[in-house]
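Notes, Module 5: Reading structure tokens.

Key idea: the token line is not a picture. It is a compressed description, and you learn to read it the same way you learned to read a sequence, by spotting repeated patterns. We will look at two proteins. The first is printed below with its tokens.
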Amino acid sequence: MKARWLLATCLTVWLGAQAVCAQHELDMLFGYENSYLTIIQPEVHPVRQMVTPQQGTFLLDVGMDFFVPDGWLGFMLQRCRVQKVWISPGIVGNKSGIGTVFSAGNTPNYFDLPFGGTPHHHFVFAASSPGVYVFDLKATRGVDYQARPLLDMPFVYRIYMVAGSPSRLHGNVTPSPWYVGSLYDLFLRLQVRRDGNVVASTEQPVNPWAIYPYLAGFNTSGNVQVVAKLDKHLSVRVSRNLSGSQRQDWTFAKLGDTNGDDLIDSNDLRDVVNHFGGVASHGDLTGDGTVNLDDLYPVLVYYGQSGEGMR
């Protein structure tokens, strides 16, 4: 990771010299709407291609700034915090002069704007393997131009970063009708299998606010089986000829797997019964914040069944 950070730092100037105007257009511009922090631009959460200045290294410049509305002489904000919500393992976001800020490890994972007297900053995200990487973030602790406190951003903003040319699947994710919680609270886990062997796998939280609720990359192609597992649900499976970028929507009808073993059995029933009447997330299958009869019902309906990935 240290070597990757050094390379990313050395190449910050190189990246900054590439199409400065175009980079500014892709900067995340923070502002507010109806007293909530938001990202004014880019409005559609982007899918961005990483560059490869040398073999085995993938880099992407991500800029941040405060939004200046047309006709205004200053920024909409006085300050805000850019907070990581989730980031894929294997990619890090570096800031020249500081080091790694955003990662899946023990790094700050937030950045306060303005910093050093300016809200305009750039981060170089670096990865060493081809794939699709996710950076989920929110704006928090905001104050507007009149020094009024703002509410935290009510959604999670996602940047997809594509390193190399992996095979890609993207699309919608539909949980069981019994599930009424936030889709972002559920992880989607994908396995690519060939001849019964797992050749690639990935996971990410489902983001209903992103341009695609999921976008996954695999460094393999050809005829495969793809097994998809959504938290609390039994897995489903499809056969695909992986190549390029393809749409694959997922529908998960069977809710009731509390422990993630892809079976609905006595262990899941015990989880619901033991937490019945409580507010613990374990046993709360429907995502409504409590463990009650609504959580017990799908376990009884699908009791004894297993996911398609188990077959």
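Here is the second protein, with the sequence above and the tokens below, as before.
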Amino acid sequence: MSRLPDLLTLDAMVAGLDDDVEGEAWDGLLCAREGAAAWAQALERRQRLEQSALAWVAHPWLADARRTLRGLRSAAGAATSVALEALAGRDPVFAQLGVTHEPPTQRVTAAWGRMEVALVPPDTVVSLRPLQGERLRYFYKTATGEGPLPTGSWKLERGDAPVVLLAVDAALPARTFSEALAGATRAVAVLLLEASSGLSTLRHPT
């Protein structure tokens, strides 16, 4: 009986580096009940890797922000992780038009001092919420601006990306993303990149 290929093999198949992949791997992918979902996840991983690399090269400030975040890891102490819920849905105006689909959610559990990457379709609202009672303040930064994000929500318009959403302790006195990151002892960020070809980490209702 054919088995679903492992993650490394799937990633090689998606990247076209499958010269050494045995035919059994393709048979397993095509025959497995979970084959379509596994292939879609492999495509998403590949797209996230490629788009992340392009973003780092084109926007040096992303690397600076990630470097600062990494420097905060040891300062986080015993509280090494924070659970954030990323809620993706279409703009609220759709509800006024009678669209009542419940938006799907993705829970992102990120260690303090890390920047997680999420692929997001255009016209999607992403809202960050703490799940464990943390009191957090939110900020945003794009290639053209930065500032506070009181609601913790951002609507990704086409061409916005990359967008970094930053969460820090609520008691931190800061007015901008840069001030918050410079003064934080604990911080976590989510990097929003625009999904393409129908692939996304966060999906809005269809």
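Summary for the second protein:
- The two ends are 35 Å apart (CA to CA).
- The CA atoms of residues 72 and 185 lie 6 Å apart.
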